[in-house]
Amino acid sequence: MTIKTALTYDDVLLVPQKSNILSRQDVDLSTKLSQNIDLKIPLVSANMDTITESKMAIAMALAGGIGIIHRFCSIEIQAKEVAKVKRKQNIVIDQPFTVNPDNTLAEVEKKMQELNCKSFLVTEDDSKELLGILTSRDILFVKNENTLVQDMMTPKSKLITASEDILPSQAKELLENNKIEKLPLVDSAFKIKGLITATDIVRNYNNVNASKDSRGRLLVGAAVGTKTGFMDRATALIEAGADVLVIDIAHGHSHNALEVIKAIKIKYPTVELIGGNIATAQAALDLIQAGVNGIKVGIGPGSTCTTRLTTGFGVPQLTAIMNIYPICQKHKLPLIADGGVKQPGDLVKALAAGANTVMIGGQFAGTEESPGLTITYKGRQYKISRGMASLSAALSRPDAKETADQITPEGIEARVPYRGSIKNIIDQFTGGLRSGMSYGNARNLTELRNNAEFIRITPAGQLESAPHDNEIL
User: Fold this and answer.
1) Which reaction is catalysed here (predicted)?
2) Domains of the chain, each with CATH number or no CATH
């Protein structure tokens, strides 16, 4: 038996190149997540229950990346999280919230609080005919809780409306010229077809770097498992608007994972589907044959993962990327490097080795946007982060009682210092990447890969690469 050498990020450095890059801002960070999804930055937040729900996914998309909503909740809750992202910055709200004309002020105020919404289109339950619009301004000075919507609303005779095929520029002009904030979309029978708000128009024009779909909505992904019920979950997520599904299984090169991919592709041939996690070229070939649109690489490199210690299996992440990249390049499939990134330099190395995007969990944990409460321990704020194969994560699943005696943890739970907004972390990583690209004479990520020259370093070189011989303040 021949034992090969495998390397990870700390084992190598990139050799500086003669550079024609005059400014870090001259480089282009855009990339592909999957065959048909483009991103402005190569960052993806991990599908972990302490990393990505709607709040994180919204922040990631606004920054130009994408978040993958975790699956460790009911199908209904996960679908709602996806829908929250799609509604956040949507030029056209397909299904605007509505109230009936005979609803009372008390009912409206309760609904406003529950839905975090300040305006409603008014219609009868079944007709969908637009009767009027009710906003928070209409009820501002109404004291009687039994006042009916029909007595407070602006009736349709006084509304400015448009057809559903209106262009964003035309909608902007209508809103601006008429000094209104809501533009209902209706058909020839005055049935509701959508709603455009001034707030969403302004956001769309201001957030030019956000990751958006063809209709101006924020991009979002969602995870799907491989056990019974996976198709019901996939269906609900697609209907909620998920732009990409990620097969979430620790060992992606398994018969079960491949069969799930095939089944989803048969039922939903146009859905963007990412397979993984894998660590070998053969696994990539099998995933491609099953029908994936992107490949996620990483067996055991995550900061809360103990798969390699528990099972003895895995491939150091840099070698895994470099082994799989030629397969992805030949078949024109993007590669997602999942795990092991501790600092911006690791991001640069992953992309130079062949990754199109990098999925990050641990470094995004502890941020304001990550799920969970902020706790105080010995005078310092923390959030909890855990691997999705950890004992606590396994026990929190719906089938935990039936499978508790079969659980062998492959992850840990950790207390992570509170880090503030995710925007600060994203800026650190993209700033480091821009600097790295200037050292590599790369105006885009393709040039970064093509120009890359790796050298292996010794433990002494690793020590020399970090701050040393100083008392750090």
Assistant:
1) IMP + NAD(+) + H2O = XMP + NADH + H(+)
2) 9-89+209-462 (3.20.20.70), 98-206 (3.10.580.10)
